[in-house]
Recover the amino acids of this structure.
């Protein structure tokens, strides 16, 4: 158990030390993908969702609308090359709660309840 705790602490330290570099790399990759989409399809065919200022967007997420494209066949064609989805993992059909959201809520509750979260992770 002590080895596990040490590994978790070391992982947290690495993430803390490298968070800026990782976020910067992700943002660069996001912007590169957006540029390639615009180059390939034209600026009039791509609508970027979210904040207009790229620095306000999540560094690891690109959300776009593609004029005239249907998400399902497009995602099927890209599935071997790009990790993408047409919706968030925690949403299906609107407001319906699914297992991902419930699992996250359960984990947050466990971690903030004042009990040992480490004991409950395994």
């Amino acid at each position: 158990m002590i080895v596990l705790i040490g590994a978790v602490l070391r992982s947290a330290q690495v993430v803390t030390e490298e968070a800026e570099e990782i976020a910067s790399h992700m943002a660069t990759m996001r912007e590169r993908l957006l540029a390639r989409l615009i180059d390939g399809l034209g600026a009039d065919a791509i609508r970027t969702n979210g904040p207009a200022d790229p620095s306000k967007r999540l560094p690891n997420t690109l959300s776009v609308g593609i004029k005239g494209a249907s998400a399902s066949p497009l995602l099927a064609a890209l599935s071997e090359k790009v990790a993408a989805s047409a919706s968030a993992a925690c949403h299906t059909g609107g407001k319906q709660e699914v297992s991902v959201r419930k699992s996250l809520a359960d984990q947050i509750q466990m971690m903030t309840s004042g009990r040992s979260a480490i004991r409950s992770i395994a």
In short: Residues 3 and 19 are 24 Å apart (CA to CA). The beta strands are 46-48, 64-66. The longest strand covers residues 46-48. The chain has four helices and two strands.
